[in-house]
């Protein structure tokens, strides 16, 4: 089997084990949160009889392993049950809210890469100079303040005092865009509505930037540190001696080896943003899965909690597999290590 | 610095482009407001504030609360009569559903049967109704299993659904009626209301448009489109209103934010007479199983301080002084001017008659974790009650844990703080669940009150059908509840909403037009919006 295929099979097998573990864990944890899900779902005015009927319907009076059995049976048919919070199938809720979060996280991820890595490169290139010191302070600020703090600061600065960006939502009310993929940036283009595309881009900028700031700082700092280390390597010294331009040394010879550790962190950051997006989504009224996830946890909506956590875990696992493959692509030593001995 | 000088011009160009792009006009005739998620569109399941707003605009009911006073007035019905436990309603003949179908008695029967079959939302209000029968196309009869005086007022919670439309859209489910149209009605409207739903996402937004076929007609300056948004953060709402991109906030905005908006020129709308804030005393645990200790706490509580604590500015507060167990404006309430006041001398006298020594007891003063205001009220209680010599312990409880703990008297804190509302505007739906001994240990009844006189009066409130006699019964009940003090009646709740100046809503600004029912003030057909 080719090494890269062997790596993929190995990672997917591990991912399946992880997902089964997560499903068991979250299934158990969701059931030990205080409060009766049936009572919370039906509201304070529901009668004892109504609560009891719902408990029976949800199999809440059965032992936990029996409940898990029902869950496995249903999920094998693609059924995550009905959300007690929205009264809709959890799959419909996830299908509706996941694209909004993914779109936000992907744009934030692109910002992280497109801003964080060049900043790190510039910082390393001008090490010890004013621009390096400035970028280090900015990176540190990005890393040290949580994204929701940035969300509020950015909103105050660029939506309240200087009303450049919109405050809430994914697009202006005046646009009616047919949902094809759920990703508004794509759907507006499919619809051929360029104005709506720019409007959606304009709406996503602040929340994505707030979400990305921590990752940008981290990517910049990591890239800087790795590139400075690479700059001290003898082969770089030799390039300089041969008179290769600084730009070429930085972009071609110093950057690629420095990218590997940064990529691992960016991958982890990217997946973590799915969970961390909650407060940014709340501040910018972004109708995403993270906000939905927190809302269903607070209401002890068992089916929705398990469904949301599983989807976030799946995305986490997928992103990690992609990062592993990218690293294997960048670093031949990892590819070769998969060859049969 | 060279780096910035290189990119100065492109950066400036981007800034100018964004500034230009951000200047956009608001949509005309559109009303934008927010509420706490989720918005339940299925009227058979509606129970929260957002659900009520949707229900009252998309659907109609046989009767409506009288504006500016107690009682009910015909709406989809033209009149009704009562013969023992049978109520007969004549329906209007000029009413059409948004689908174009005419309203018939069959729709009323279907709506009741559906609500009882689903068994969620406020269906418990109709447990007493045995059956409904369509006598003819425009006459419907309800047969009750026993006398239930608040039945007429309960009908404000029976929205009438378009049977023909729902039957066409039944999905799979148990029995002949499939899912009773739950899947369809959770996404679509099927009412006679002044507004029809054009888009609905229970966590994000519901968009409604004015219906051209509404039987009462809708004024031209009423909003053409309504966007009810869910779950906006306080900072977001504040910024949106300041930018002119939002019209009415929810009542859950912190008083400081509400005050800041008022300072910037926003109007403050209010809705009152529907509920109150109570400090519920566990009457099964020492020292509050002694009525004198309870009366001591009632007298020691600083009622004026709590109203100041929830004030938005000098004129407006989220509550007003309480006059007793029943909020001002409801059947049996004491009139304004008799507000309760702190009286430490009386408190000490009651304490002297209590069989317990205050210093030997630590009062558990709980507050619901999701309502930060309650922590401040817990601190106020602590200050007031320690003046009497009690020791106090403040306990923070998440709602879910609280609801579980109060199911057993020994786990129920000495004092629990709760907002309680009358879901139909009738005092029965406010206090029966709190004080009747047949309902112990629910979230509404952490008092565990077991008082024969209270039970008798509550039962009389249901069985006496004459309005004046009911008023007497509830007035007597109010006085008795004051005398046995199972609760400290902290303040009458007043829901406040910050609103932009382009909106006019008489039902939320003029007491003569107020409905006395949570959410009904948001009948959009009675509002006007400037373009």
Structure commentary:
The complex is a heterodimer of chains A (341) and B (531). Chain A has a domain at 90-298: MetI-like (MetI-like fold). By secondary structure, chain A is an all-alpha fold. The model of chain A has no long low-confidence stretch (mean pLDDT 87). Helix content of chain A is 77%, strand content 0%. Chain B has 531 residues and is of the alpha+beta class. In chain B, the strands form six sheets. A four-stranded mixed beta sheet of chain B has the order 1-10-9-8, with helices on one face. The chains are: A mainly alpha (341), B alpha+beta (531).
Considering residues with a beta carbon less than 8 A from a beta carbon on another chain, report the largest interface and each chain's count: A-B, 50 and 54 residues
User: Oligomer, anyone?
Assistant: heterodimer
Average pLDDT, all residues of chain A: 87
Helix fraction of chain B by DSSP (H/I, runs of at least 4): 25-40%
Strand order in space, largest sheet of chain B: 1-10-9-8
**CATH class identity of the domain at 90-298 in chain A:** Mainly Alpha
Number of helices of chain A: 14
CATH fold field value of the largest domain in chain B: D-Maltodextrin-Binding Protein, domain 2
**How many structural domains in the coordinates of chain B?**
2
Q: Which fold name is given in CATH as the topology of the domain at 90-298 in chain A?
A: MetI-like fold
Helix segment tally of chain B: 17
Task: Describe the structure in brief.
Chain A has 341 residues and is mainly alpha-helical. Helices cover 77% and strands 0% of the residues of chain A.
Spell out the key features of this protein:
heterodimer, A: 341 residues, mainly alpha, MetI-like fold, 14 helices, globular, B: 531 residues, alpha+beta, D-Maltodextrin-Binding Protein, domain 2, Dipeptide-binding Protein, domain 3, 2 domains, 4-stranded mixed sheet, 4-stranded antiparallel sheet, 17 helices, 21% strand
